[in-house]
Structure formats: C-alpha cells, structure tokens
Amino acid sequence: MVQHLLTTNELKVEEIYQILEDAERFSQGLFWKPEKQMYTANLFFEASTRTKSSFEMAQKRLGLSVIPFEVQTSSVQKGETLYDTVKTLESIGVDTVVIRHSQDRYFDELVENINIPILNGGDGCGHHPTQSLLDLLTIKQEFGSFSGLKIAIIGDISHSRVARSNADALTRLGAEVIFSGPEEWFDYHSLSTSRFKPIDVAIKEADVVMLLRVQHERHQKMGSFTASEYHKKYGLTLEREKQMQPHSIIMHPAPVNRNVEIADSLVECERSRIFKQMQNGVYVRMAALKRSLESLGGGNQYETAYSERKIYSI
Amino acid sequence: MVQHLLTTNELKVEEIYQILEDAERFSQGLFWKPEKQMYTANLFFEASTRTKSSFEMAQKRLGLSVIPFEVQTSSVQKGETLYDTVKTLESIGVDTVVIRHSQDRYFDELVENINIPILNGGDGCGHHPTQSLLDLLTIKQEFGSFSGLKIAIIGDISHSRVARSNADALTRLGAEVIFSGPEEWFDYHSLSTSRFKPIDVAIKEADVVMLLRVQHERHQKMGSFTASEYHKKYGLTLEREKQMQPHSIIMHPAPVNRNVEIADSLVECERSRIFKQMQNGVYVRMAALKRSLESLGGGNQYETAYSERKIYSI
Amino acid sequence: MVQHLLTTNELKVEEIYQILEDAERFSQGLFWKPEKQMYTANLFFEASTRTKSSFEMAQKRLGLSVIPFEVQTSSVQKGETLYDTVKTLESIGVDTVVIRHSQDRYFDELVENINIPILNGGDGCGHHPTQSLLDLLTIKQEFGSFSGLKIAIIGDISHSRVARSNADALTRLGAEVIFSGPEEWFDYHSLSTSRFKPIDVAIKEADVVMLLRVQHERHQKMGSFTASEYHKKYGLTLEREKQMQPHSIIMHPAPVNRNVEIADSLVECERSRIFKQMQNGVYVRMAALKRSLESLGGGNQYETAYSERKIYSI
C-alpha cells in the first residue's frame, strides 16, 4: 500500500521513531538511493522558502529527478482541479508529489484515486507533518528522549499548522505541552484550557520554548497589537530569555518576524536551534521520502553505511 | 540540416511513422542518450501543465540537462524579443529549445538565423505537433493502423491547435475525420462542410470520440451557452456514451472541463484514453527530441535494447 | 577564507588574470568538478535571462546541483529578509549562492554572518562583476592584451552597473577608457570629465566600441529623447559603423534595444561580439564558481586536460 505522509496524528509512535531514526542516520551520512531513477514534483500553492527548498535538497540528495511545477504558469490558471493536476503528473511518470495548499485537508479528495505517495507540505491551518517531525528530531537530538520534558508552545496557536500536531505528537511521546501567548488566539475548543499559562510562567518552566510565527498573511490584522506591543507582551524579549533555565533551548519554525516573536539578537544566540531546525528539515524529509518510495515496492534500494567520505555532510 | 518540429503538416507520412515507432519503442523501454551532455530550455509564454512537464520528463529520461526559463523573470520583461531570447540561449550553449507562444507561427521569424532545433509546444490557434503525435500514437496502439477508422473531432474547432492538424494527419494516414459541436465554432473556410455531422450521429459512428476543450481563456464568452447547456447540447453525456460502439474510445487533450465537454464520471471510465494520452505524450516527446538532437550530428549516440531492468517503465 | 565575488574593484589584477585564464581554459574544454556533490541557488530579485541562464549553465557544466528559488513564490512574500533567506539556504546545505538585487551593495549586510560564498549577479546601479569579467575576456581574446587599447563606453553611464567597474578594471589592466553618450547621463562626480568625448570622435578612435543599454526600467523616461532621436544622436548607426577602424569591434551587455543603441542589422555583423560575450559569460562564471568553491576547502577537486572528446564545446 502506498504510504502517504498527510498528518502527524495518523503516524503511530513507532512510525514517528522510525522516521526520526532514519533522519538521524541521514544526518550521519547514510547513503540511500532508489534502485531505478525516480521522479518527483513539488506543488506549492502557497509561498515557501524553507519547506520547498528543503524538499528539493532532500530529493536531490536521494538522487530523485525533480519535474518543475509552478502554479502561476500551470493549467491551474485555466481552471484545472488539483485532482486532475496530480493525476496528470502521475500519468507522465512522477513517482511522488509534495503538496502545499491553502485548503484544509486538500488531500481528502486525492487519496482515493491517486496511486503515488503524497507528502503534505502544509494544508490550510491544518497540518504540516514534516515541520512537526523536524521539531521532534531537534528536541530528540538535544535531550535524548521526550519523556518528562516540558515544551511551551507560544503565540498564534489558532492559525498554526504545527501547534496542534506537535502538541499531539509530543504528548504521545511522553512530553508535557503547555501553551501561551494571546488568549484570544488560543483555541479553547480543541485544546484543554488547563494547559494555558501566562508567558512569564511558561518561559521559566519550559525545557523548550517553541515560538510560533505571527502569520500576518492569515490575520486580517495582528489582533489588537502593534508589532512592538506583541513583542513586549508575548515575545521572547532579552529580559525573558534571562528567565529561561540554563539548559533550555529556543525553537521557531521560521520565517521569523524579528523583534516580534523574538528579539533580533536572540535568533542566532547560543540557545537558539532555529537554523538547526532547518538543517534537520532536510534529513527528516529524506526519511519521509524514503518511507514513501519504499512503499512503491521494488525493495532493491541499496543502502551503504556512513563511509569516511562524508557525502551528505551539510 | 537542423530538424525543427514546427507543424504536423510539414511532416511526411514516413516521418510521422518514424516518430511513432520510436515513441512506441521508448514505451517499451528503449534506452537512448546523446553521447555528450546536451542542454535544453523550455520557453512557455502561455500556461501549461501537461505539455511542459511532459517535455521536462522526456528531457530528463534522455539525460538532457534543463536550463530553467521563466517568462515573468526573464529579460522579456525588459522588452527583449523572442529572437534575441532564443539567440541568447543558443549562445550560452543550449542545444535545443521547446517554445509555446500565443502568436501564430511565432517560429517563422526564428528559423532563418537560429541554428538549434526548435520544438513547437503550441503556437496561438495554430499548431501543436506533439499533441497531434501523441493522439496518433494512442489511436495506433488501440487499433493497429489508421486505415478505415472514423474519428469524430467534437467541440471548439475554430480555436483548437490540434483539430486541423490532427484532421490533416489522420486523413493522410488513411482515416476518415468527421467534425461536430456548435456550428458557430466550425470553420467553414478551412474545413469541408460535408464532414460536419450532428453530435448524436457523430458519436454513434465514430471509432474515436475526440473531444476538444472549451477554451474559456480564448473566448470572450462561451458562445451563447452556459456550461450545462453546452454539456447537454454538445458534451459527452452519460446517455451519449451509451450510444458509442462497444469498441470505441474517448480522447481529450486536457485539461478537461468536467461536466462541460464530458461527464465527470466518464473521464476515467474504461473507454477513456485521456490519461493514457498523457503517458504517451512523454514517449512522443522523447522521440521528437531524439530526432532533433540526431540532426545536430555526432551520430555517436548509443542505444540499447529493452533490458529486463525496465528503466523507463512509467 | 570564503571567497565571495562582489565587485570587480576588490579584485587584484592578478586575481582578474587568474579568472580570465581559467575561463579561457574552460572555453578550450577544461574539465573541473568538485570532488563531492555541491549545491547552489540563484536568487534573482530582478529580471534576467542572460545572467541567470548563464550561471545555471555554468553550474551544470561544473556538475553542481541547483536548488530552484523563485522570489515570487518564496517567503520573501511573507516579509522574510534577504539575510534570513540566504541563511536558510546555507542551513539546508547550499554551498554557494548567486544574488541579483535592486539594492546597491545588498551584500554588505550579508558577508559578516553568511559562511558560504556569494557571487554578485548585479546590485542596484552598482556592480556586476561577472559581466565585467566576460567583457574583459572578450577583449583579451580579441587583442591578446589590454595595454594600449582604447575602449569607448557609450550610453547610459549613470545607471550602468558595468560602466564604472569596467572603466576601473580596464585602466588597471593598462587600457585607456573614454566615455560618450548623452552628457546628462554622464556622472561628473565619480568619473573624470577629461575622458568624455563626442560620439563621432569616440567611435573613430576606439578599438572597442562598448555600447550600454538604455535602461527604460530604471529611467522615468528616456531622458528628453525618443528612441529614434537617441539612435540618431548617440546610437551606433550604419553611418557611424563605417567610421570605425577596420580592426575595431562592437560590444554590448544586452538585452539590446535594436535601433536605439545600435542599428538592427549591426547586432550580428562581423564586428559584433555581442553573442560571443554571452558565450564567454558561461566560461567566466565557471571560473568564478571554481574560485569560490575551492575557497571552501577540500582541495581534492579533480581536473583533467582538454581531451579529444571536447566535453564543454558550446
């Protein structure tokens, strides 16, 4: 059966661990390629630098050939549906597609009749499983395990693709998740209110301070705040950073609004894992692609151990 | 002499058969590559998913390296002419270009001084030779030969790049072509009126029901019809499909307007060759590229028979 | 230390000669590749055909893998800064970036914390070092050396990225540079007025007539001239071409405004090196990339002499 990667929620704990383990091995120089030449396409219906270029890098490191696809110059402009677009790519021989789309659960209309694996690069305000997985990898590299950790997810929770799926996955993996930020952006319906804490408490208690991006492009306006008010009230200011525990780390999915969610000078400070997260994004996507391509059968893919010539070192 | 592929009309019958034969061999796993690394570029001045991605796939399967070109970020924005753009690509070492352009016969101003093969990916309302060739390949795969077949081309004939060239090629190959659809979209000047038949007659008689896309983007409005009126009057409805002969097939160049030219549920029905056409598009374009690249001389390209490791299976 | 290529001015004379020599060897078939797979990205925030496709070609000839980046579909649309964009690409494993940006000296904010080489593909009205180097290569191929040559740079000097840096480099290499064109476009502040000459004098004296593009996109209007007035007053007309010395050549960075800077029929005349310049652009960019990639260490790159199989012939 074809292995899509659509949401973190549908991954069993052992599947999450398998992906993280493969990603870790890729970070150490694992060399894996499909036996025959395979083709892929990246359909990004929303702007992206990190996710798109990270998938491209992962695909190229696995030796996949990427068929370019740009929404603005495609037949989507003539009204072609997402289903027909993906079916077309399947027909011409594309083996797997990555899709980002503004519609929540766009993939529900695809999975029945599309016979190639779909990797979700973000759907609406819904899911972003590879972002979630790279966050998990970054935390695991730092602390070895998830059990007993306290993760504070802070900011625009209602619009965040990762807040909910990260919370779910982290809890299943044994961590404790607390939320903070503007209460009006907190979703009382789907998240237990008992875990909402004031920002200064959250920051003191957390092993991981995970900031979320204020998504100007999804808000009509930035709540009732100016950028500097948001920073003062809910951002990681220089003062708040000093309240963090010595071993605690800072994460952010980026792109960062500097001096809004986080003080400019903290983006690359010693605690920050923000660019490390991006690095890990490549390894996690290599692992996710490997999982999906292996599900296509064949099974003759070869794999060699990390050699002294570190081919995949970043 | 450099072998362009500009129109189907200028291809001799034996050239058509040669391309179809090569395409058929590619579909069976023929492996062909130019001896030295060759470079190509795809200049699409109009939106495309199928043609562009199909050419990209064909190029990659032949081992060509594709130099990206996007109209919106090119010097075309500074007023550079098509000729100077193509001459530039020739100068930097591109070996062959694919062009789609809204101007009828855009290539007339190029062929004199451009010394690399041009493959026409569609010009205005004029020609689209690789679409025509993939239609021919699909028919040939189905029926073995063209002689005695009856092909009904139905729909927006006046704006169709392929209606006229398909009609010409099919007639030369021994098939009989009939037209149907709205009479106001039928071109009495360039096509014999004697071959125009009412839709319900055409569908009963045809071995191949070839539907054409209603090109919203070329019409000011969709004639005097709404979409559902068009479907009822000229579309392949569920009722009309039942009138087709048992062995007859459905074709459409896509993108399909579902429930306009054809009922939604027929797009992937057993008779439909719509996605098969797309698959064949890759093989036909591989054959067309091979023909053009061979014309550049060298002749040392290597070719191996289909091996048990089916490299080009789609 | 990482070797950027930001401006021609900062290159020492011996560095210029080294790049030209490598470029010349690439034009003769030198084969050079980095030992391990390397990755690159081209960030063009302004339209380009020549520079972008020429860099792509150079990258592919060196075996680099290109990670696509399109400004309009990137997180730049969400307000991400240039620094964060480049840092992201560095984080995911890109080894070198090419950047064109409308801001003068955009690179000043990058060089401190970016640890991969930046190749400047043009900044504002400032610099365009690879254009400058390809001009130098074209002149050197023609005349063997620079000493004693007279180069007339004619046209829109104030907006030209190359006028100033070409003038500087050519003077340092032993050539004499004179300027001509509309006096109102001449920059009396930064260029010595003593070298400004009327167009008909400049054209008679010059060994190289280097025309500059009238940059409609940077001017509010084309000075006080219509296109045909400009051509008559400051363009290379058919009559003026006859006044050139028998051995003199014509250059232009392109895209050419035909019948503005130069008469249409002279663009591809015997004296013209305009398309030769584009060809040389690939070799110069290969040399510049080689220089930057070698600065990343490793040093195990292999290099083979020109073999009978001329791999890099254009």
UniProtKB/TrEMBL annotation, chains A, B, C:
Pathway: Pyrimidine metabolism; UMP biosynthesis via de novo pathway; (S)-dihydroorotate from bicarbonate: step 2/3. One of its GO terms (molecular function) is aspartate carbamoyltransferase activity. InterPro entries: Asp/Orn_carbamoyltranf_P-bd (IPR006132), Asp/Orn_carbamoylTrfase (IPR006130), Asp/Orn_carbamoylTrfase_sf (IPR036901), Asp_carbamoyltransf (IPR002082), Asp_carbamoyltransf_Asp/Orn-bd (IPR006131). It holds the Pfam family OTCace. One of its GO terms (biological process) is 'de novo' UMP biosynthetic process. GO terms for cellular component: cytosol. Its EC number is 2.1.3.2. Residues 148-289 form the Aspartate/ornithine carbamoyltransferase Asp/Orn-binding domain. Keywords: Pyrimidine biosynthesis, Transferase. SUPFAM superfamilies: Aspartate/ornithine carbamoyltransferase. L-aspartate binds at residues 78, 161, 213. Carbamoyl phosphate binds at residues 50-51, 100, 128, 131, 254-255. PROSITE patterns: CARBAMOYLTRANSFERASE (PS00097). It catalyses: carbamoyl phosphate + L-aspartate = N-carbamoyl-L-aspartate + phosphate + H(+). Catalyzes the condensation of carbamoyl phosphate and aspartate to form carbamoyl aspartate and inorganic phosphate, the committed step in the de novo pyrimidine nucleotide biosynthesis pathway. Belongs to the aspartate/ornithine carbamoyltransferase superfamily. ATCase family. Heterododecamer (2C3:3R2) of six catalytic PyrB chains organized as two trimers (C3), and six regulatory PyrI chains organized as three dimers (R2). This is Aspartate carbamoyltransferase. It comes from Neobacillus citreus.
